[in-house]
Amino acid sequence: MSCFQDFLSLAQVQLGQVEIKCPITECNKHLDEATILFNLPHDDIIKYKYFLELSRIDSSTKPCPQCKHFTTFKRKIHIPNPSKSEIKFKVQCPSCQFVWCFKCHSPWHEGVNCREYKKGDKLLRHWANEIEYGQRNAQKCPRCKVHIQRTEGCDHMTCSQCNTNFCYRCGERYRQLRFFGDHTSNLSIFGCKYRYLPERPHVRRLVRGSVCAGKLLIAPLLLVIGLALELSQLS
User: Fold this and answer.
1) Is 154 one of the annotated active-site residues of the chain?
2) 196, 208 in Cβ contact below 8 A?
3) Which among 3, 154, 167, 212 is annotated as catalytic?
4) Is the separation of the CB atoms in 128 and 139 below 8 Å?
5) Half-sphere exposure of 203 (CA within 13 A, CB side)
6) Which residue among 99, 162, 165, 202 is least enclosed by CB atoms within 10 Å?
7) Contact predicate 169/161, CB 8 Å
8) How does strand 135-136 pair with strand 131-132?
9) Chain centre distance of CA 28
10) What is the pLDDT at residue 83?
C-alpha cells in the first residue's frame, strides 16, 4: 500500500497528472478518481483536486496567482486607446482581493503591457537571485510577490505593501506556535531551512519531524499533569 501511495503522490504532485495509468504492467486502464482519492494523504488530495479542477476548465477560467481561487473572466467593454487596451484584463480575486492580469497570469502591471512586464520580470528575477556581499540582491514577498531588497538588519522582513512577515534568507513566511517554536528555532518544523543542516534536507526534515511528533505525544501527558496539579491545589 505504501508503494502505491508513493506512486500516486509522485504522479500527481511531481508531474501534475490527473489521468493516472494503473501501475500494473499488464493493465492499460486508468485509475478511477475514487481510488486515487482514497489512497492519497490529505495534503496530496488537496493538490490532486486542484489539478483535477484545472484540467476541466477552459481558457476563460484561471486560478488566482496568489491563493489559487478560480476566476472566470468576463470580457469588459473594448477600450479604443491602444496604450490602454490591456486594462480590460485587470481582475481582482474575490477570495484574497489580489489584483492580477488575466491575460499573462501575473500581478497587475499598471502602465506596462504584458510583453514588457514579462521581459522586465525575467530580468528582475535573474538579478534578485544573484548573490552579492553574501546575500541575495532581493527577496520576493511570499504573499504579494513584490521584490524587496535588504540594505541592513536581520533576516526578519516586513513587506511594506501587505505587511507580511517573512525570512529574507529562504523567502518563507514567519510562522509561530509557542509549543512548536518559530522560524528562528533550529529544531522547529517552522524553522528556516538554512539554520539547520541546509546541505542535508532529508535529515533536517526527519529530525524536525521527530521532534514535532515527540511534542505531540507528550502534550496530552503534560495537560493531564497540569490538570491534576490544579485539582490538587483546589482540593
Assistant:
1) yes
2) yes
3) 154
4) yes
5) 5
6) 202
7) no
8) antiparallel
9) 34
10) 46
Phi and psi angles of residue 58, each rounded to the nearest 5 degrees, phi first: -100, -175
Q: What is the pLDDT of residue 167?
A: 92
- Report residue 216 as a C-alpha cell: 505531540
For the CA atoms of 171, 142, 148, 62, the dihedral, rounded to the nearest 10 degrees, stands at 140
Q: How confident is the model at residue 180, as a pLDDT? A: 78
Which 3-state string (H, E, C) describes the chain?
Answer: CHHHHHHHHHHHHHCCCCCCECCCCCCCCECCHHHHHHHCCHHHHHHHHHHHHHHHCCCCEEECCCCCCEEECCCCCCCCCHHHHHHHHEEECCCCCCEEECCCCEECCCCCCHHHHHHHHHHHHHHHHCEECCEECCEECCCCCCEECCCCCCCEEECCCCCCEEECCCCCECCCECCCECCCCCCCCCCCCCCCCCCCHHHHHHHHHHHHHHHHHHHHHHHHHHHHHHHHHHC
65: cell is 496567482
Residue at 19: amino acid letter: E
Nearest to 72 by CA among 62, 82, 81, 80: 62
The residue count for the chain: 235
